[in-house]
Amino acid sequence: MAQESHHAPEPAQQGTISALREAMARIEAEPAEGHHSLSGSSSPSEATDVVGAESSRASDYDAARQVVLRKLTGSAKSRHQLAEALREKEFDEATSSAVLDRMEEVGLIDDAEFARVWVRTRHQTKGLGATALRHELAGRGVAEPLIEEAVAQLSAEDEEAVARELLEKKLGDTVIPAGHNPEDRRERERQSRRLVSMLGRRGHSPSTALRLVREVMEERTA
């Protein structure tokens, strides 16, 4: 996955993008695969057939490689995302696998690092909690162990800090009524439901959302 905006990369992404671009420069300089000796051909016609087949394979490999390199320009992608892009372009599985395997060898594809950077960036810039981050990475085809490893970067304190920030931003200058009359109680309940729902959509657990909303509202009504 959600479409991403095209703002300048966050600090957490800078090192990864630089490394990706260096690897891209190396791999673009490589010749396409598929060129082999024709000395074993038993006749001119067979040699011609072999040349044609090898030329086609090399052409497909190079075309698939260029698709992947274009997809990687500016941002990392998971192997699954790139495989889907090649499938949409109707490259055969053998060609796609060969290209993607080579990209992994040179470090252009690294699902573990992709997941780690994704978690840090989305947590810091969007305030997403662990549940939402797991869902996003799973949707991009990242393996569950790598997802859990990436999400483990976040502590409970990290999640609470971004959740509180979201609440303060959402509330802004909103006044929370402190009265005990029915109208004030209804307004507090309405605000509470709205805030808990907002945190839930960002992937924060219901128990954490309820507790933090209660704390923030109490602070504003004290």
Observed structural traits:
10 helices, disordered N terminus, single chain, elongated, 3 domains, mainly alpha, 222 residues, 70% helix
Q: Which runs of at least 5 residues are low in confidence (pLDDT < 50)?
A: 1-9, 32-39, 49-53
Number-wise, the strands total 0
The portion of residues assigned to helices is over 70%
Terminal-residue CA separation: 42 Å
**Which outline best applies?**
elongated
Strand proportion: under 5%
| Main beta-sheet annotation | none
List the domain count as a whole number.
3
Helix/strand/pairing category: mainly alpha
Order of helices and strands: HHHHHHHHHH
Q: Give Rg in angstroms.
A: 26 Å
Task: Name the average pLDDT.
Answer: 82
Count of DSSP-assigned helices: 10
Structure overview:
- This protein has 222 residues and is mostly helical.
- The chain has three domains: 11-109, no CATH class; 112-151, no CATH class; 156-221.
- The protein is built from ten helices and no strands.
- The longest helix is centred in the N-terminal third of the chain and has 29 residues, at 44-72.
- The protein is elongated, with a radius of gyration of 26 Å.
- 25% of the residues are buried.
Q: Strands, helices and their partners?
A:
Layout: H1 11-28, H2 44-72, H3 79-88, H4 93-105, H5 111-126, H6 130-139, H7 144-151, H8 156-171, H9 182-201, H10 206-221
Helix pairs in contact: 1-5, 2-4, 3-4, 5-7, 6-7, 8-10, 9-10
Briefly characterize the structure:
InterPro entries: RecX_HTH_1st (IPR053926), RecX_HTH_2nd (IPR053924), Regulatory_RecX (IPR003783), WH-like_DNA-bd_sf (IPR036388). It holds the Pfam family RecX_HTH1. This protein is mostly helical.
